[in-house]
Amino acid sequence: MLGFTENISGVAESADLQGKRNDFTVLNTAINSLKINVRFCLSFPQTVTPKRKAYYMAKLGYIRTSTDTQITDRQYNRLFDVCDQVYVEDGVSAISKSRPVYKQVMDSLKPGDVFVVSSLDRAFRSSLDALAELEKLQKQGIEFLSLSQNFDTTTPDGKFLFTLAAALAEWERQILSQRTKEGLAAAKLRGKKLGRPKKLTDEQIQEARRAIECKFYSSITEMAENFRVHEMTLKRALRR
Fold it and tell me: What is the CATH number of domain 59-174?
């Protein structure tokens, strides 16, 4: 009986060992399969779709004033709520060929951005200039927006309205210039002195000349400080 029990126990141990071997074989097979899958995935990185970098569409505003004393509040208040950044160019005529701030805005614009102005006459010199600049913007994929004349320049009707508005702005500017010249000419005929008032009167200039003859001042700079003007202003007055 004892021999039979020992025999049964041996068979059980053999079966248990065989089962463990089978489990180990299954586990080893699973690990090898996992390694193969990992190597397969790592060997094809190009199948992973890269994330595209999203670009934020910026709205850049442009303000221009013809004189340094012209107030920009009206333009700025309109552009402030619409634009991400506003550029201001003070004291530059509408027909000036040199507009460094305008050039800076053009260089900052990227495809998908929007160029914003309060009105067409703030950005362009003439109707031809407006059409040429609009074509450049459209070729670069940049949109144009005028808050006073809100039309779609990508359509034939919108481009026609854009051309018409630019022509009207140029006509208005030319009429204003003509009236200003006529008014100045009429004032000159009436004997009115035009331009800025002189910083030095004729009596002060004569006094400065006498002071130079008497060598009352040690230098022209000291004399200019006494008359409360710039040195160059005094020199120009003495040359007259």
Answer: 3.40.50.1390
What is d(CA 78, CA 147) in angstroms, rounded to the nearest whole number?
A: 8
Pick out the chain residues at pLDDT < 70.
1-56, 68-71
Q: Please provide the DSSP assignment of 57-100 as one string.
A: --EEEEEE-SSTTS--HHHHHHHHTT-SEEEEE-S--TT-S--H
Instruction: Identify the active-site residue in 14, 33, 43, 66.
Output: 66
223, 234 in Cβ contact below 8 A?
yes
State which amino acid sits at residue 163: T
Can you give the residue ranges of every domain in the chain? Answer: 2-47, 59-174, 202-239
DSSP state of 219: S
Closest alpha carbon to 82 in 60, 97, 104: 60
For 223, other C-beta atoms within 10 Å of its C-beta total 19
Tokens of 138: 């459209």
Catalytic: 66? yes
Query: Which tens digit of pLDDT belongs to each residue from 181-221?
Result: 888 888 888 887 777 777 788 888 888 888 888 888 878 88
